[in-house]
Structure formats: C-alpha cells, structure tokens
Amino acid sequence: MTSPTPLRRGAAALAAAGLTAGALLLATPASAAPTTTGFDAACWGKFKSLLDNTHKSISTGVTVEAPASVVTGETFTYRLQPDTMTLARNGENLRIRSSVSRIKFDYEIPAGAQFVSATVVPGTGVNLAGSAPTVTRVAENGSPSATGTILRLSGNNETVGNGPATNDGAEGGIVVNAGSGDTSYRLPAIEVTAVAGPAGSVVTPKLRTTGAAANYKADENFFTSLVREKDPVFSVSYWSATRCVPKNGTDPGSGVPLNAGAGPLATINVTAPPDATTTTAVAAPATANTGAAVDLTATVSPAPAGGTVQFKDGDDNIGGPVALSGATATLSHTFTAAGAHAITAVYSGAPGFAPSTSAPRSVEVSVATVDTTTVLTTPTHAKTGVSVGLAATVAPAPNGGTVQFLDGGAPIGAPVTVAGGVATLAHTFDSAGNHSITASFSGAPGSAPSTAAAKTITVSVPAPNETATSTTLDAPTPATQNQAVTLTATVAPSQAGGTVQFFDGVTAIGAPVPVANGTATLSHAFGAVGAHGITAVYSGAAGFLGSTSDAHVVNVTAVGTPGGGSGSAGSIFGS
C-alpha cells in the first residue's frame, strides 16, 4: 500500500449498551499528529425471549490520522481507530455479563476520492477473541459489494442484523470474553487507501449515519453487538442485541438530531498539482558596440509547452514578447546607448509550468575607446582589525566604470564605481603578512580597461602596547553646492603618522590623505544638496592603532539658499 507521510487527524470509537468508554492510549507513528473526536452515543439493547430492553448513553470517540491535504491523483492513506471500550461485569437484574460478540463498526466511504482498499492494522486490537477482525466493503443491506458505500469492521461480517450472517442468540464474529471484573478491549484500526479526486474536493471520513443508520434502534447503526448475560443462580444465558447511534440522551426520539459523532472525523482537502518549477537563463555577449546587432537568447528548463519570453534591459522591455521555439527564444537587438546593461529574460509561464525570471546578464556596451592607466594608492602598513583606505585613480577620467580591488588576485568586496576618475574602498585586513594589492578598472564607454601595478601592504597584528589614537573632525556647516570647503582631521597623539580617509556616509571622498603634525586636510566640493554625514578614518601607523571620528553633519544648500546647522550623529565606521 503506497502511503505518503501524512498529517493525521482524529476519529472516534463507540461502545454498546451496558459498555463504558475507556481511555487506553493509541500508539501511532512518530510523524503522525492524531486527534480524537469525542461524542455521546445513545444505545438500545433488546433481550431475546424477554420483554426487557435498555436505554443507555455512553461517551466515546474515534481517533483519526489523515493528511490535511493531498494533490489530485495522489494515492494516500488515512487511519481510523475506535477508542478503548469496557465490558462491564454487572449486567441487568443482577445478571453477570460473560461476553460481547458479533461486533460491527461501520464507516462511510467518503466522496472526493476513489476508494482503493482498506485493511486491518495488525497489533492495534486489544483483548479480542473469536474471528479475526476483517474490513469488508458492503452495501446498505450489509452484503459484501464491490460498489458498496460502507466499510465494515467485523469478524467475517457476523452481526446481530444488517448482513447475510445475522443472529441475536448465539456468539459469533469478534468476541470479547469477560474476566473476573470489568474487561477493557479495543477494536483494531483500519487503514484506508484512496486516490485523491478533482482539485477542490474535500474528503471527510465519517461514521455510518446516512439513511436508516441515523435512526435510534436500527440494525444499520454504525455500532452494533450482542451482549451475553448469565443468571448467577440458574446459569441461564440471556442475549441482548445492542445498537448505538451518535445522539445525545437516553431513548432519544426521532426529533433528536445527530451530534458531532456524525460529522467529519477529518477534513482532507484536495488541491491541484503545483505548476512545474521552471528556470530561465539568458545568454548575451559580455561586450557589444553601439549600432551593432547582437543576439539575446533565453532557455527555459524543463522545456515547457508554450509561453513567451520578454527580454528586458533593466526595467525596460526590449521589443515585444518572443514565442518559445522548443525551450528557447531568440531576439536580435541593437544597443543605442553605451554603458552597462543588465539583460534579463522573463518567461510568462504556460499551463502546468510556472513563470520564471533569469538572473541578469551584464552586457558592457562601448563606443570607440582610448587607453587608460590605473594608479593604486595604499598605505604601506596596516594593522589587522583596523580599517584603511584603498584608492585607484583612472586616467584619463572615464565616464563611469568600476574598479575591482584585489588582494593576491582575490576580490576585495564588490566593484567600486569610479567617480571623477577615482574609486576608493575602506578595507580591514583580517590576517597579518604581506598583501599584494591591485586594482582593475572595468572600462567604460570610450575608456579601455586597465590594471594598476601591485603594491604591497605589510599587515601586522596590533601589539598589546600599541598606542590608542583618537580622531576628531572639523567641517564647515552649512556648505554651498559645488563650492569647495576644507575638511580637517586631527589625530592624537600628533606624532602618529599614517593617513586619513574622509567619508561621506559610506562613500570615500577622494584618496587617503597623509597625516602631518597630527592633521590631515582635504578640499572638497559637495555636488548634492542635503545633509551629508562626514567622518574621518585614521589608518594607524607603526606603534599606533587606527581610529574613527564621530560623524559631522554638513548641510549642503543650493546657491542663494540659507544654510542649516551641524551636529554629531555618531560613528559610521567602527574605530
């Protein structure tokens, strides 16, 4: 029997007249989450050859393990386990109960799924004798039927009524023999295998309560049995055919409704199969020239049945959607603007296939280029754990492009945008030794790539006796857009040496500035109006640790606009 790992739910077990429900725990798989639906059952017992009959109400339940949801077409299982019951020793009119037999326990086959099979779960029954428990598919009249709507747990379908092998005056089927006192027993669980129906269906395992089974005193009631009582003096046996229905009270009339025991014991939702996950990859040349056509190609995996691909340059569509041919779509495209273009391909999806978007493919579009040179500026010494500034100057100054700093060929951080011919990076070394630093310019429209000559930075571990430093920043406020101001960093002790890297937020301003007599100054013109958080990062030097100033806010205004104030906003970089 194929069984997915289910999230299982609760069901219920029932007893007969003169029986009380027990509380034996049900052993279930560790992965299951069983729950129990408890309810009252109204039971009627009729003694054969006597005028006596009994009306009793018992509390009982059924435990169910079932998946919360299944996919249409999926084979799944659910388990139904009646609760523990008790055969009370004391019967009616001082008689002694000796057995209960011919037990049947009926479930309805739920809609929303195609029934495959049902089996008794070995080892889940307790204190049972007589015929081995079986589960049989039966029709409304209790006869075995391949198209029946009832699953019957019994011993060879031997019952007190509603079946081909009925008898209300002799033991048969499943038997529970009484001990010297009250006797607990438990009917076994059954495991039902089914195939999930259409998406949107709901599968609700239930007790048998439709038709005549909903009536009090009916042979069709979901739980029936035969109780045997003996006269303690004359050893005469009396047989009580007992029938139970999920209703409240004793001797309920026809107007008393069914209770929760007639409701769903579990709810299994049938969902549609998820669309197959797709991945889209875009192929494009790494470089292109304006005015020259290139091919953009998208490949969708697995190959879907239809759909289109929309190529995009950043957020802008390139032409219209292109229909897939097999798993690919190709578009010829001519770039009109130089620069970096992030090309993506967006697959629309198709029946059974989910949409997907490719990772961007960078195409560097160029015009006629000139050679460039890249010069690297670094400190000669640094300390582990102390930030230092790295700067690369590209000449002639390009219109854009990035610089990738490298340590021994390994990238340091992400590429840094070149602004005004300069790219700077604050970097903290985490290992001592000689580090060979280079800077590689990516190229830009009209500017060829170039790589700086390597420089060696000797990195050492700070000694315990190295002197701590402090850095303070002096910057004017307000400042006027595009008008140069002086930024001054003061390092104490003044004999420290080293360099200072000024920062606007997390963006380096120019290249590191050497410290002379405890100060470093930089002339800078702010290009953007607004508040700028400026800091100064001292690199440290032999015998001195690095440090960072508090942030200083410079309010930059347009020409002719009244200025703002300044203030301390805390460190942006750790010292």
Automatic annotation (TrEMBL):
<dbReference type="GO" id="GO:0005975">
    <property type="term" value="P:carbohydrate metabolic process"/>
</dbReference>
<protein>
    <submittedName>
        <fullName>Ig-like domain (Group 3)</fullName>
    </submittedName>
</protein>
<feature type="signal peptide">
    <location>
        <begin position="1"/>
        <end position="32"/>
    </location>
</feature>
<feature type="domain" description="Bacterial Ig-like">
    <location>
        <begin position="377"/>
        <end position="460"/>
    </location>
</feature>
<feature type="domain" description="Bacterial Ig-like">
    <location>
        <begin position="474"/>
        <end position="557"/>
    </location>
</feature>
<dbReference type="InterPro" id="IPR032109">
    <property type="entry name" value="Big_3_5"/>
</dbReference>
<feature type="domain" description="Bacterial Ig-like">
    <location>
        <begin position="283"/>
        <end position="365"/>
    </location>
</feature>
<dbReference type="InterPro" id="IPR013783">
    <property type="entry name" value="Ig-like_fold"/>
</dbReference>
<dbReference type="Pfam" id="PF16640">
    <property type="entry name" value="Big_3_5"/>
</dbReference>
<keyword id="KW-0732">Signal</keyword>
